[in-house]
Amino acid sequence: MQSIHTNTGVTNTAILLIYCQDKQGILASVTEFLNENHGNIIYLDQHVDHEEGLFYMRVEWELDKFAIPREKISDYFETLIARKFGIKFALHFSDKKPRMALFVSKMSHCLFDILSRYIGGDWETEIPLIISNHETLRPIAARFGIDFHLIQKNEKNKADQEQLELDLLNEYAIDFVVLARYMQVLSDQFVSNYPNRIINIHHSFLPAFAGAKPYHAAHQRGVKIIGATSHYVTADLDAGPIIAQDVVRISHIDSVESLVRKGRDLEKIVLSEAVYKHLQRKILVYNNRTVVFN
Amino acid sequence: MQSIHTNTGVTNTAILLIYCQDKQGILASVTEFLNENHGNIIYLDQHVDHEEGLFYMRVEWELDKFAIPREKISDYFETLIARKFGIKFALHFSDKKPRMALFVSKMSHCLFDILSRYIGGDWETEIPLIISNHETLRPIAARFGIDFHLIQKNEKNKADQEQLELDLLNEYAIDFVVLARYMQVLSDQFVSNYPNRIINIHHSFLPAFAGAKPYHAAHQRGVKIIGATSHYVTADLDAGPIIAQDVVRISHIDSVESLVRKGRDLEKIVLSEAVYKHLQRKILVYNNRTVVFN
Amino acid sequence: MQSIHTNTGVTNTAILLIYCQDKQGILASVTEFLNENHGNIIYLDQHVDHEEGLFYMRVEWELDKFAIPREKISDYFETLIARKFGIKFALHFSDKKPRMALFVSKMSHCLFDILSRYIGGDWETEIPLIISNHETLRPIAARFGIDFHLIQKNEKNKADQEQLELDLLNEYAIDFVVLARYMQVLSDQFVSNYPNRIINIHHSFLPAFAGAKPYHAAHQRGVKIIGATSHYVTADLDAGPIIAQDVVRISHIDSVESLVRKGRDLEKIVLSEAVYKHLQRKILVYNNRTVVFN
Amino acid sequence: MQSIHTNTGVTNTAILLIYCQDKQGILASVTEFLNENHGNIIYLDQHVDHEEGLFYMRVEWELDKFAIPREKISDYFETLIARKFGIKFALHFSDKKPRMALFVSKMSHCLFDILSRYIGGDWETEIPLIISNHETLRPIAARFGIDFHLIQKNEKNKADQEQLELDLLNEYAIDFVVLARYMQVLSDQFVSNYPNRIINIHHSFLPAFAGAKPYHAAHQRGVKIIGATSHYVTADLDAGPIIAQDVVRISHIDSVESLVRKGRDLEKIVLSEAVYKHLQRKILVYNNRTVVFN
Question: Does C37 touch chain B (CB under 8 A)?
Answer without folding.
Answer: no
